[in-house]
Fold:
Amino acid sequence: KSEVVEPGCRLPQNFSGDWINTANIDADIFINETHIIETWYPDEGRYRKTIYVCREQRDTRVMMARLTVDGCQKDYVCFDFVPQHHNVIRYRKGIAVITDNYHTVCSWVQFPNRVKWKYDLYLRKNPVAVRCPVAGKFNFTQKGDILFETRILGGVTLSPRPNIYCKQNISDFSVCDTDQKEIAIDETYCLSVDHLGRPVDIYSDPDYKMKCIAYWKENIKSYLITFDELDPFSKYRCWIYQRADLNRVLMSQAIGPFCDLKQDVYSTNYTEGAAVHIELQEYERERDQCPMHFDDGSNPWLETENTVKIFTFGAFHSNNNSNKLLSFHVNLLLVFISFFSLVV
Structure:
């Protein structure tokens, strides 16, 4: 018997697309305006598909009808969504009940783990990098079960690299690209410079490259999600980070795409769901041109991208006195520049 459920509400438009469910990493999620379709591919046996249909919505809670291939009955589940930001949808899911009364299905007592709970995550399947909440050039020390190691991305290099005498090697954590969207980690980085203050080692590549795709603050902890195509265990990694001083940052990387409730910035091993703990100390040199940036994720909806700003200089609202004065000063400055260029 096939059930047909007519949708009674609409999900936010920015929910639409393909997602990964960190609560069930082997499942693919497809969302449109009215449906959430979860397809799970177990290691053995056939795939299982679950369809959620939007029935009723009030504030952040959405009552959805659940249809599965296991039987002919439909039941109802409540989702509590956080407004979407970056490449992540945070949500809680209640227990399934047979009634379709909203006040019963979406009662707060239907959500398990009443005291110790956190939001589950839908991560975008094809994420777009965002500005990293931690940026700059840092020297780091590490401790944990799975440490960052020296390696060559892509295997053997096409041509041999020159032998460089290095007075000091450090572990380097850098977010120095123009948009500050990619983390580069080099476990053994040469810190030496020549007589002009330029770095000597210009041929080495970082050991790890990760894109920042989401960050937020929850349970008084700052969370970061990174994406690494070459990670053999999980392309998505969760981090907890915290600013410890003016130029010192503490971070802990999780084993997988989500952070355990027990994990904090000092977590180092699997007992708290962590892979490694790193302590960052800023060391930007004169020629690095790598400014420091930190965002604790309190407002992840805030636009912090490095964008081009266009100054109108009084082109609009010309009747405003302040704009007229600004335009006059700009014209006066242009006159002085042209005068001095003629003199020279």
User: Anything to note?
Assistant: The chain has three domains: 13-124, 134-294, 310-344. The helical segments are 102-105, 321-343. Residues 159 and 203 are 11 Å apart (CA to CA). The chain is about 10% helix and 35% strand.
